[in-house]
Write a structure and sequence with these properties.
CATH architecture of one domain: 2-Layer Sandwich
Number of strands: 20
CATH superfamily of one domain: Reverse transcriptase/Diguanylate cyclase domain
CATH topology of one domain: Alpha-Beta Plaits
Low-confidence stretches: none
Distance between the termini: 52 Å
Radius of gyration: 51 Å
Strand content: 15-25%
Shape: rod-shaped
Largest sheet: 6 strands, antiparallel
Structural class: alpha+beta
Number of helices: 13
Mean pLDDT: 87
């Protein structure tokens, strides 16, 4: 039973380990599916508009404006940029000269127009003027709104004369990310190349650093007024790592909730996506798998216990059928089979003889009347033990009735059986039995008969019983053969 219990505990522990593995696989698959969907959103809103400044950089009107800037051309270009921005769903389109000054902009009609402002200090301008595509996420110095800036150099006669910039609003992405948080409690954080959160469903996370920013990089960020204020670390506590990419995390701004975090880098977009799924999803899978497997193991365990108990019960039934529980001697049920085999053997082989010793406790009713039935049971147990110690392994001792006992002794002649009976009688006589009342006088009488070939068991018992009666009539506490 203990072994079965240990096996059950081992099975439950194994189920827990397997449940964690299954849960991890499920969460990894869920992370990867979500990352593809979120990447498509980012690509749609951030990368696709990249073609706009690239196409505008080849425009004759833009190149002419940069070659010979004047007010009329700037006004005409601003109107064209305004129409293009509306058609392409770009927040703002604007043209900067080689010094970073805005000559034309799609928001030229608005009060916070970019026209006339200088953006030389912005990294996207520095990248584009050097001939590269500029990418930058920052708060606008005029609009004070977060945007994603895409800048493309404009070449005139083989020389870079200016830059075309598209500012893309994060409003659509922000709405979708907030929707995912409200519906599914999926926390999506998008950081730029500096590791600063630029997109989050919660305002408390915006412009917080996912990891420590080196001092030199911090100074550059602050000088460019990229995020508008001082950068502080995100209040995040990292927990146990399930893999190199997946770990448990908690946020101070989201108390009493734990998440599983996995990040994905999208270098072509210049951002990193941090996906956070509720840790409860992971533990629910672990719990369900462990519970299901444990229930199956428990069912097997209970079936084994039931089978084991049936075997024990069957064994006890057999034991009760062939052994007397009080004296430890065999029962008459077992005696019949034993005697049948012994008689057949003796009939075939005259040297395989045996004797029957019939014993009866003298005046046993008085023992029960004077000392009580518990004392009587004690006497029977003691006599049974004396008999078991006296016989050999191939002999048979039987409790035939209440205080009537029988012993079948494999022996060569009657004298050997009589000697065994006398030893038992003497041992009983010498044994001191006591009860609460006092000493219990115990003796027994016996009759011995030797089996004759062709004789039945009833005939043998009749002869042995006759000798037992003789012993009783002669005064008890004796053996007659």
């Amino acid at each position: 039973m203990l072994l079965l219990a240990l096996l059950l505990l081992t099975a439950v522990a194994g189920a827990f380990v397997e449940g964690r593995r299954t849960a991890l696989e499920s969460m990894e698959a869920l992370f990867d599916r979500s990352s593809i969907s979120r990447r498509n959103l980012l690509q749609r809103d951030l990368q696709n508009p990249l073609l706009v400044p690239e196409v505008l950089a080849t425009s004759r009107a833009v190149r002419a404006l940069l070659a010979k800037p004047h007010a009329i051309a700037a006004r005409e270009q601003s109107e064209a940029l305004e129409e293009t921005a509306l058609n392409t769903q770009v927040d703002v389109l604007y043209v900067l000269d080689s010094n970073g000054t805005c000559l034309a902009a799609s928001n030229w009609r608005e009060q916070d127009s970019f026209v006339g402002h200088n953006y030389k200090f912005r990294p996207y301008f520095e990248q584009a003027i050097m001939g590269r595509v500029g990418r930058y996420t920052a708060v606008g110095i005029v609009s004070f709104k977060l945007g994603y800036f895409l800048a493309h150099p404009v070449t005139v006669d083989g020389t870079i004369r200016g830059v075309v910039v598209a500012k893309i609003s994060f409003s659509a992405l922000q709405s979708r990310i907030r929707e995912l948080w409200l519906q599914d409690k999926e926390l999506n954080l998008v950081s730029d190349e500096n590791g600063v959160v630029v997109l989050s469903p919660l305002g408390a996370f915006e412009f917080k650093a996912m990891q420590a920013i080196p001092e030199a990089a911090r100074k550059v960020i602050e000088s460019s007024r990229q995020y508008g204020n001082e950068i502080v670390p995100l209040a995040m506590t990292a927990g146990t790592a399930l893999t190199q990419q997946i770990r448990f995390v908690e946020f101070r701004d989201i108390p009493e909730r734990s998440f599983l975090q996995k990040s994905y880098s999208f270098p072509e977009l210049g951002v990193r996506l941090y996906l956070h799924l509720p840790a409860s999803q992971y533990w629910n899978i672990v719990t369900q798998f462990t519970a299901m497997f444990s229930l199956a193991a428990l069912a097997i365990f209970l079936a084994c216990v039931g089978l084991f108990q049936r075997m024990i019960y069957a064994t006890k039934l057999v034991e009760a059928a062939i052994h007397d529980p009080l004296t430890g001697l065999h029962t008459r049920l077992y005696m019949d089979d034993w005697c049948e085999a012994a008689i057949r053997a003796h009939n075939r082989d005259p040297s395989a003889g045996f004797a029957l010793v019939v014993l009866d406790l003298d005046l046993f009713k008085q023992v029960n009347d004077v000392h009580g039935h518990l004392a009587g049971d004690q006497v029977l147990r003691g006599v049974g033990e004396i008999i078991r110690m006296a016989i050999r392994g191939d002999d048979l001792a039987v409790r035939f009735g209440g205080e009537e006992l029988a012993i079948f002794v494999h022996c060569a002649d009657l004298a050997e059986g009589a000697a065994l009976a006398e030893r038992i009688r003497h041992s009983v006589e010498q044994t001191e039995f006591r009860s609460k009342v006092g000493k219990i006088p115990v003796s027994l009488s016996g009759g011995v008969a030797y089996h004759e070939t062709t004789e039945t068991l009833d005939m043998l018992f009749a002869r042995a019983d006759h000798k037992l009666y003789e012993a009783k009539e002669l005064g008890r506490n004796r053996i007659r053969v």
